Amino acid sequence: MGLLVFLVQRVLATIPLLIGISIVSFALILAVPGDFVDIWMDRTMAMTGQNRSDLQAQADAMRASMGLDKPVWVQYWIWASGIVTSWDFGTSFFYNQPVTEVIGNRLPRSIGIAITALIVGQITGALLGIYAAMNQYRLGDNLATIVAFLGIVIPKFVIALVILYFLAFVWHSPYIGALNSAEYVIQDHWSFAKLWDMFKHVWPVLLISIWAGQAYTLRMMRGNLLDVMNTQYVETARAKGLSRRRVVMLHAIPNALHPVIMNMGTRFDYMIKGELEIAIVLAIPTIGPLILGSIANRDMQVIAAIFLIIAVIIVIGNLVADLLLALLDPRVRQATLESA
């Protein structure tokens, strides 16, 4: 019951945050000077030689049909209510399609890659951190420190450019700029062969994201575990005659994991941004190139929808991290209940 109350309290606390995120997301639509109609006018003038006054009447009609002539608060209400009631994020003016169709295939790919990189990066980082702490100042610890240091300081797009060079000019790889080979593109069902083919296309994204993600977790887990090993209750457990392995597994590691689990929600944000950055460099058809193209075309409906969805997923990620922490440590949920 205590865990259920804790979860309900955390969910209710996110509602004002989600409302604020929706307002900020809608503000993105208005942030860029001009709109899609201005781009249409510029392109039409360049192609036909007409001036702005010749196109003004048609432009006004387009704005009226798109609802761009309404007050800002009315536009926000229409946009937000459409999302809540029918999962309608509006229409992409550039693609002339519903936004959900434009991002429908790309967004799950980005989220899937980011979640995979987060889970694998957190697990490998924590395991390497434990190994480094248990072998402090030895060769394994030094190698883990070097790996973590390189993963933190080298920009992800630089690593992506290096891998792209080798793929294109050294290995002459056919797996560039796509998610699947031609024979699997029209295959509407998933199979192990299609999944493996997809991995051969996206492994650079996973490798870079996991490396960058586990580096910080490794350093955090190593430092936390070394601190916990020097605490009084660990010394007491040793004095009672418990083996070093039992002390580490039952007492030290669970307590050292607290900051790592707390950090999972914020690391998902890092993974999403990393995936976008790497996908743009490698031209993989996920959300990254779509955002870049939408910014160039001022298709702000698409950008606002992507920002809102990713922000909501990050909030959910933080909620899951809080729940995992509450499961690991009853003191967390007890403190939340007492402060309510």
Give the topology, please.
Elements: H1 2-31, H2 36-48, H3 52-66, H4 72-86, E1 91-92, E2 97-98, H5 99-104, H6 106-134, H7 139-153, H8 156-170, H9 182-185, H10 192-229, H11 232-239, H12 244-282, H13 287-296, H14 300-328, H15 330-339
Antiparallel strand pairs: 1-2
Helix pairs in contact: 1-14, 1-15, 2-3, 6-7, 6-10, 6-12, 7-10, 8-10, 8-12, 10-12, 11-12, 12-13, 12-14, 13-14, 14-15
Could you provide a short overview of the structure?
The chain is 81% helix and 1% strand.
Keywords:
340 residues; two-stranded antiparallel ribbon; 81% helix; mainly alpha; 1% strand; 15 helices; MetI-like fold; 2 domains
How would you describe this structure to a colleague?
This protein is mainly α. The protein has two domains: 24-101, no CATH class; 104-296, Orthogonal Bundle (MetI-like fold). It has 15 helices and two strands. The protein has helices spanning 2-31, 36-48, 52-66, 72-86, 99-104, 106-134, 139-153, 156-170, 182-185, 192-229, 232-239, 244-282, 287-296, 300-328, 330-339; strands spanning 91-92, 97-98. The chain has a two-stranded antiparallel sheet with strand order 1-2. The longest helix has 39 residues, at 244-282. The protein is globular. The model has no long low-confidence stretch (mean pLDDT 82).
* Strand fraction: under 5%
Q: Strand order within the widest sheet?
A: 1-2
* SSE string, helices as H and strands as E: HHHHEEHHHHHHHHHHH
Q: Report the strand count.
A: 2
Q: Taking Cα atoms only, what radius of gyration do you get, to the nearest Å?
A: 25 Å
List the quaternary state of the chains.
single chain
What average pLDDT do the residues reach? 82
Distance, first to last CA: 15 Å
Tell me, what is the CATH class of the largest domain? Mainly Alpha
CATH topology of the largest domain: MetI-like fold
Helix content: over 70%
Number of helical segments with 4 or more residues: 15
The name of the CATH architecture of the largest domain is Orthogonal Bundle
CATH superfamily (homologous) name of the largest domain: MetI-like
Number of domains: 2
- Ranges where pLDDT stays below 50 over 5 or more residues in a row are none
Alpha-beta content class: mainly alpha
Biggest sheet features = 2 strands, antiparallel
Query: How would you sum up the global shape?
Result: globular
